[in-house]
Amino acid sequence: MRTTLNIDDDKFLRAAELTGVHEKTALVRMGLESLISKASASRLAALGGSGPAMRAIPRRRLPAALKPRSGKPK
Q1: What is the C-alpha to C-alpha distance for residues 53 and 23, in angstroms, rounded to an integer?
Q2: 36 lies in which domain range?
Q3: Long-range contacts: 39-47, Cβ < 8 Å, 24+?
Q4: Would 42 be classed as within a structural domain?
Q5: Which of 12, 42, 54, 55 has a CA-to-CA distance to 6 between 20 and 30 Å?
Q6: What's the domain count of the chain?
Q7: Structure confidence at residue 71 (pLDDT)
Q8: Is residue 65 part of a domain?
């Protein structure tokens, strides 16, 4: 998609300096990807481990051969 953007020169130069990317398209793409990643992480954190509609997930159990034995090793 093509579009025209008005970007603050100082912010663009600072972002280019910090990332080492000086191509406008690449820098805008990186900014959008970073924004998406940050927003996705925030949404995931907001769930706080809750899933009201989720069914219980079975726990994994170690096979007997892999369970640690009590006592001193030989």
Answers
A1: 45
A2: 7-46
A3: none
A4: yes
A5: 42
A6: 1
A7: 63
A8: no
CA atoms within 13 A on the CB side of 29: 8
CA dihedral 16, 21, 24, 25 (to 10 degrees): -140
15 close to 7: Cβ distance less than 8 angstroms:
no
pLDDT over 80 (residue 54): no
pLDDT of residue 73: 61
In contact, 21 and 27? CB cutoff 8 Å: yes
Two structure tokens written together for 55: 């069914």
Residue 58 banded pLDDT, cuts 50, 70, 90 = confident
CA distance 58 to 49: 16
- State both tokens at 40: 């996705």
Is 16's pLDDT higher than 80? yes
